[in-house]
Design brief:
With 370 residues, this protein is mainly α. The protein contains 13 helices and two strands, in the order αααβαβααααααααα. A two-stranded antiparallel sheet has the order 1-2. α1 packs parallel to α5, α2 crosses α3 and α7 packs parallel to α10.
Length: 370
């Protein structure tokens, strides 16, 4: 029975690994991996538990690289194990040793399988039958292909990570290193130069779209968490969404061209799409409550403070009508919960994410469903 059961089991195991490589590297979509997504969640949960026990969220900075190492090791080990299951029944018959009597234990099968996955003829075991020769050749092709794909994948991951960090740093710098959307708009539109600031908004909108697609194609990016909150997606995307909310609520009617412009619309849509993708794929805890009266009062104060900041920069603002404050609150309701959930999942304090509205320095209380 083992002579057919082991090869069938090994073939299935290798097929699952190759399917996971295909879904992770070639057909890259958030939430489609077989092994990679589950392994990433397992490593994240373990690191999160250790970070909570040691009360040190900086440990989570190692999570992204550890997931990459664990994924590459898992693919290699499982491929070798699957090939070993195929090789094992053939030891001593179709596969023999050239220097001594051929051992038939499973450890030897694992050694032969690993060697054939790396370099054909890299050990003193050789195929004797046509089927065994084809098996060695196929293993070599599979091993070489997986190695090439994983190296390319690593380069793409870190390239996308660098681009994301550059975007977050750009948003932080444009806000005058304050994390305040009103300060960002004050720097972009100083002296009421809306047309001049629009070019910067267009560049920012394009980079936000690229960042959204990067997270969609390389979902492991979600687990790269840096100690500095300026690199947090939740913080940067809060600034962007708050900026759009202020543009559409606080600026006067003669700025309608800006409110309805492609750049502003693209910024809003891209930022919301990324937060929604992260929430749907990675976070299972949807317990965040709707905004309460305290939230509304804070947002009203935030709106008034933002108007004053814009006026200080000589930017024309609309009169403080109640319906404008209400419009700002309605827009904020669309994204505030998403920002809180993503920020809480990455173990950031509320004040690190939302610097415009300071809250008590406690954790979000939202755990990652990962």
């Amino acid at each position: 029975m083992a002579r057919w059961f082991e090869p069938v089991l090994g073939t299935l195991l290798m097929a699952v690994v190759l399917a996971d490589v295909f879904l992770t590297v070639l057909y890259a979509r958030a939430g489609t991996g077989i092994i990679s997504s589950r392994l990433a969640k397992l490593v994240w949960r373990a690191m999160r538990a250790v970070a909570c026990i040691r009360n040190n969220s900086h440990l989570l900075s190692f999570c992204g690289p550890l997931i990459m190492v664990a994924l590459l090791m898992s693919w290699s080990i499982l491929l070798a194990l699957g090939a070993a299951l195929i090789v094992h029944p053939q030891l001593g018959t179709s596969i023999t040793s050239s220097s001594q009597e051929t051992p038939t234990d499973f450890v030897t099968a694992l050694y032969v399988a690993g060697s054939s996955l790396s370099i054909v003829g890299g050990s003193n075991f050789g195929p004797q039958s046509a089927g065994a020769k084809l098996l060695f050749l196929l293993n070599s092709v599979i091993g070489t292909s997986v190695i090439s794909l994983t190296i390319t994948y690593l380069m793409q991951i870190y390239g996308a990570l660098r681009s994301r960090n550059s975007l977050c740093l750009k948003i932080h710098a444009l806000s005058g290193e304050t994390g305040d959307a009103a300060a960002l708009l004050a720097h972009l539109f100083a002296k009421n130069q809306l047309s001049a600031g629009y070019n910067n908004l267009s560049e920012l909108a394009a980079e936000l779209t690229d960042a959204k697609e990067a997270h969609h194609f390389y979902p492991i990016l979600f687990y790269f968490r840096f100690p500095e909150p300026i690199y947090a997606v939740s913080r940067s995307w809060l600034i962007v969404l708050d900026a759009v909310s202020l543009i559409r609520s606080a600026l006067p009617d003669d700025a309608d061209w800006l409110k309805q412009s492609g750049a502003v619309t693209q910024m809003w849509s891209s930022a919301l799409l990324l937060l929604s993708t992260l929430d749907n794929v990675f976070l299972h805890d949807k317990s965040s409550a709707d905004p309460n009266d305290t939230d509304r009062r804070l947002w009203e104060a935030r709106f008034e403070d933002a108007r004053k900041r814009l006026q200080d920069a000589d930017i024309n603002v609309a009169e403080d009508f109640p319906h404008l404050r209400a419009a700002y609150i309605e827009r904020r309701k669309r994204w505030n919960t998403l920002v809180r959930r993503v920020g809480g999942a990455m173990a950031y304090h509320p004040g690190e994410i939302d610097t415009a509205i300071r809250r008590p320095q406690t954790r979000f209380g939202v755990s990652a469903g990962t």
